[in-house]
Amino acid sequence: MPALSHRILLIEDDHRLGAMVKTYLEQSEFLCDVVESGAAAFERLAVQTPDAVLLDLMLPDMDGLEICRQVRSSQAAYAKVPIVMLTAKGDPMDRIVGLELGADDYLPKPFEPRELLARLRAVLRRGPAVGVVVDEAATSVHRYGSLCIDLDARQVHVSGEACELTAYQFDLLVALAQRAGRVLSRDQIMGLSRGKELDAFDRSIDVHIGRIRQAIESDVKHPKRILTVRGVGYVFAKQQD
């Protein structure tokens, strides 16, 4: 039997659902710890940083969005851990806010366990984005004007200043940058970075692009690195300052 690989922290107050997800993930060769409150989550995070967090938005003691905000604003080791939100709320604004707070993905309840597993594996993916061809003989550091992307270190700097991006946002940026000058649709970008076809009505990609722009653009209202092609998608500019 293959060794268990990634450790997942599931923050879910529905005991039955938590047990079901834990069993399914462990059958899929993950380690899974389950806590049922925000307080218990931060106690666990302080002791051990997981490889990813599955976060329910409806918890008894703390809103899941607040947990996401506190994780991302923390100076602790877990600040950059990938987060997948689990939400039973029908309001898409909750999902948008969660993504803006730094979540990497979301999954509405009820969900298919196979889809949960696919999304979880996607945010855990390390290295260049899926589908991105990299010349391994070349340096891992790519420069676009004052923008520097280090594929090996998974870091981004602008004029020497570090940019804060989630793992998923880093993969999106790489997918765009390595196709500089080529207009990519939302479907293409999602497929390259996550290997999953984008739902025609899903605009979460726009939220992530917005967060990337906040990190790398000097003027978010007038971006010069990632440009919008109305009605089509986005293009990473070949010529940059």
What would you note in describing this structure?
- This protein has 241 residues and is α/β, with parallel strands linked by helices.
- The chain has 2 domains: 118 residues, Rossmann fold (3-Layer(aba) Sandwich), CATH 3.40.50; 96 residues, Winged helix-like DNA-binding domain superfamily/Winged helix DNA-binding domain (Arc Repressor Mutant, subunit A), CATH 1.10.10.
- The chain is built from 8 helices and 12 strands.
- Strand 8 and strand 9 form a beta hairpin.
- Helix 4 runs parallel beside helix 8, helix 6 packs across helix 7 and helix 6 crosses helix 8.
- The chain is globular, with a radius of gyration of 18 Å.
- 32% of the residues are buried.
- About 8% of the residues have low confidence.
Q: What distance separates the N and C termini? A: 52 Å
Number of β-strand runs: 12
Annotated CATH homologous superfamily of the largest domain:
Response regulator
Low-confidence stretches: 126-138, 195-201
Would you tell me the overall average pLDDT?
83
Largest sheet: 5 strands, parallel
Going by CATH, the architecture of the largest domain would be: 3-Layer(aba) Sandwich
Topology (elements, then pairings):
Blueprint: E1 7-11, H1 15-27, E2 31-35, H2 38-47, E3 52-56, H3 64-73, E4 83-87, H4 92-100, E5 105-108, H5 113-124, E6 141-144, E7 147-150, E8 155-158, E9 161-162, H6 167-177, E10 184-185, H7 186-194, H8 204-216, E11 226-229, E12 233-236
Parallel strand pairs: 1-2, 1-3, 3-4, 4-5
Antiparallel strand pairs: 6-7, 7-8, 8-9, 10-12, 11-12
Helix pairs in contact: 4-8, 6-7, 6-8
